Amino acid sequence: MNAVVHQTAAPSLSDLLRLPPYQAYSYSYPHKTAYRPLQPPRGLRELWAGEPRDSLFLYLHVPFCSYRCGFCNLFALARPEPAKVERYLAQMEQQLRATCEALGEHRFVRFAIGGGTPSYLDAAQLRRLFDMVERHARIDLRAIPAGIEVSPETVDAEKMALCRERGIDRVSMGIQSFSEAEVRALVRPQQRAVVEQAIATIRAAGIATLNLDLIYGIAGQTVASFLASIDSALEHRPQELYLYPLYVRPLTGLGRIEAKAGTRLPLQAEPMDERLALYEAGRDRLLAAGYEQVSMRMFRAPHAPDIAAPVYCCQSDGMVGIGCGARSYTSTLHYSSEYGVARRSVAEILDHYLERDAASFAAADYGIALGEEERRRRHAIQSLLIRPGLDRADYRRRFGADCLEQLPQLRELFEHALAVENGELIELTDAGLARADTIGPWLASAAIVERMRDYRLG
User: Fold this and answer.
1) Does the CA dihedral 245-250-254-257 come out positive or negative?
2) How is 350-384 classified by DSSP, letter by letter?
3) How confident is the model over 208-229, as a mean pLDDT?
4) Spatial distance between the Cα atoms of 330 and 257, rounded to a whole number of angstroms
5) Which of 44, 119, 358, 431 could staple 102 via S-S, CB 3.0–4.6 A?
6) What is the pLDDT of residue 74?
């Protein structure tokens, strides 16, 4: 591990608003760069004993891909040896068995397979994965919301039919752009014809919810070309669309290209870029098409099924993660394997996972304990950044005081017209949603910022 993640203590909101809106994606809090070895390790049985276990989220992580996109900083390994994939599935089963035994009486109510690219597995391997879930987790995926992430080049009719048969009702696929020039700029060898065929295959399988991901901020992209990609996506009437701003992270493919060229990385202070204009244009196009904005990134179609079902959010407390790179969340401890981005680092962490004995999976040895302050901040961040917003009454029930008393910095949102009070709700305005990647990092505690700054990323 040889590259330092540079973060600084959170400045005032006024200072942050002078910078570009895209400071960091707060999809989890605390981020894995705040995790450390747990001394001593915590037994899972004791760790989960005092937790509600009647509505858990089961997440399986498949860290393999056919290629590594230039922007990707997830825990993933491209083109692994076939024998390594088979060994990994065997280890996942050992971990799932040990975890479910440690949980005791429990019930899973949501399920997802992410990565990496789970559809990198062949049909037999996917069937093996579904079998182990039914055998050890004892859940019928047909009875709960269940999703899988795929990439266009790994979709085929056999896999999608299997997923539908075993209960998958949501498929999320990263398109990034319908422009072949733009996906080449992302170091992603993808052809539009392959994308179109993948969508048709998913639709033919009868899976209820199709989610498509698009990226804005790609080199050479314009408002017109971004809207053209959105219009191409809308032709397929996806139930969900996610619009992601491009981040160029250290040790990713694009990050290495920029480092060699000596150009500035977007994490540093820089002139305002075009991403906000692209976001606003894309948002307005989807709203005009009747989509509901759920968060800065997520838009849901009016024809989406069962909109009362829980939104796919792997950051909820009560999450059980299985696989190298998967996180698990209790109310007071988050744990996982170590985190890496560079191929060498990911391979080393994965090899360590493959060498573990079955007994080791009954304990958590890497993560972070959450005190009262971090639990409050986590709840506020998660709630604010998704509509309808932060419920003050719910906050009082959880933490015994008003959020504006315990987190007085929230009042600054009103001063900058980034949030409004609507009864007991604190809701981000449209301007506030556009600044979600500023507001999330701004709410991080000084202690977490310090831990992230000191983490050495490999």
Assistant:
1) positive
2) HHHHHH--GGGGGEEEEEEE--HHHHHHHHHHHHH
3) 96
4) 38
5) 44
6) 76
